[in-house]
Design goal:
The chain is α+β, with helices and mostly antiparallel strands. 34% of the residues lie in helices and 19% in strands. The chain has two domains: 175 residues, no CATH class; 157 residues, Ribosomal Protein S5, domain 2 (2-Layer Sandwich). The strands form two sheets. The protein has a six-stranded mixed β-sheet, with helices on one face. It has a six-stranded mixed β-sheet with strand order 10-9-11-8-7-12. α3 crosses α4, α7 crosses α9 and α9 packs parallel to α10. The protein is globular and about 65 Å long. The N terminus is likely disordered.
Length: 418
């Protein structure tokens, strides 16, 4: 886990490009239709009556947040709405956000008050009563009533992360109490109770048992997975990408035994200021993700790119970072579902209306695209031409950056002789 902590830590370049630094809260100065600062203000006005005291009561989605600042002594705590909501679960469930508006998602997130307490990451091996309460919240499969007491009234702040969804008011927590018994799914209870089960094996067991990926991410983050003597808290930003990578690698090993697809396929979906187009073509496994930020005055930016061939990656995808792992997983999930192997290129465009919501958006936009019927082509060239018509950046810019297409151009295949 220590190696993963280093591998998936958020790089400064990733953090900088996800900051909302233009608008500063002045309406439409940056050209965006929705200003997150203004949505924050409107949300906090609604919350104001509930934040006048030093304690709150509400139904946690369930959700927690573990920060990365000051690692290995980090801030951790639950997220709880201080107001009554019809369905608190959606406030921390990206799997259901892809068809929501910016305003909806920001309102969900900014309505959650974050309790925080300093904890050593190794405290998960012998959790205190405080940490045990946080862990019980995370094990629940549905919203659980929680009461929290703070040192002082929650501070109104807005925190953007490169991978995690935004968060709202926060305060140092003195005490947290579950006011009802959490409903814990049997697979979750089994994995948590097994103190000899490695974290990777537990993650795969939960995934195959259809436990939502968001809950698995929370469990890794709050130190519920792994051999007891190795358990630790993992910053939420890091655990998001770690789960994407662990699941992706497991499926990758499986699909290597499947036959190739017979046609080239295109899937696509646009949402939340992003356009994602996915190209599958007959080949042994290879994967490439490209990302073009069309948010500046430059009409033809150079896309960022990371890639892998049949044996997968050994090093961190340092160009696209978390977005690489978030898009690779849905592609692998699709190939496993059809029991086929293929080469895959994912094209991502980020438009001016985009605001920082976290890397989950690429994963869920990909999954939404892959639920649709694909457009089929007999040749890769025809498919590339089809992809080009669905992107704003000229196809030539994507092709000149593609390492996979360069490889295919010079690689002789057995099929060439038949």
């Amino acid at each position: 886990m220590a190696a993963q902590a280093k591998l998936f830590s958020v790089m400064m370049s990733e953090q900088k490009r996800n900051l909302c630094s233009i608008c500063r809260g002045h309406r439409r100065l940056c050209g965006k239709g929705v200003c997150p600062i203004i949505v924050k203000a409107e949300t906090l006005i609604r919350l104001e009556k509930s934040l006048t005291k030093e304690n709150i009561f509400g139904a946690s989605p369930p959700a927690i947040f573990v920060g990365s600042w000051n690692y290995p002594k980090v801030l951790a705590g639950p997220l709880v709405p201080p107001i009554s909501v019809d369905d608190a679960s959606i406030m921390d469930l990206p799997e259901r956000w892809v068809d929501k508006t910016f305003n909806d998602i920001l309102t969900y997130r900014l309505s959650l008050v974050r309790g925080k307490s300093f904890m050593d990451v190794k405290s998960a091996r012998e959790p205190s009563r405080f940490l045990s309460t946080f862990q019980e919240i995370v094990m629940a499969s549905r919203p659980t009533d929680v009461e929290m007491w703070f040192d002082k009234k929650p501070q109104l702040s807005l925190v953007f992360s490169s991978r995690e969804a935004p968060s709202g008011p926060s305060a140092s927590i003195k005490q947290a109490v579950l006011t009802e018994n959490p409903h814990v799914p049997r697979p979750v209870d089994r994995v948590v109770s097994d103190k000899d089960l490695k974290a990777g094996e537990g993650i795969l067991w939960l995934y195959d048992s259809e436990i939502p990926q968001q809950q698995i991410t929370r469990m890794l983050s709050i130190g519920l997975l792994g051999v007891k003597k190795e358990r630790r808290l993992v910053p939420t930003e890091w655990s998001i990408t770690a789960i994407d990578d662990i699941l992706g690698k497991a499926i990758h090993r499986e699909i290597l035994d499947y036959p190739w697809i017979s046609d080239s396929l295109i899937f696509g979906h646009k949402a939340l200021g992003n356009n994602v187009q996915i190209l599958f073509f007959p080949s042994s496994w290879m994967f490439e993700a490209q990302e073009a930020w069309l948010t500046s005055a430059n009409p033809n930016p150079s896309p960022g790119v990371d890639y892998e061939f049949q044996r997968g990656r050994k090093s961190y995808a340092s160009d696209l970072e978390g977005a690489y792992y978030a898009t690779r997983l849905p592609a692998l999930e699709y190939l496993r579902s059809i029991r086929r192997q293929a080469g895959v290129i994912v094209f991502m465009e980020v438009y001016p209306e985009w605001i920082p919501l976290g890397v989950w958006r690429f994963r869920e936009i990909c999954r939404e695209a892959l639920r649709k019927e694909p457009i089929k082509f007999k040749s890769l060239d025809e498919a590339l031409y089809g992809v080009g018509k669905r992107l704003k950046l000229p196809l030539a810019r994507w092709r000149e950056k593609s390492e996979v297409l360069k490889f295919l151009k010079v690689q002789t295949r057995l099929t060439t002789f038949f």
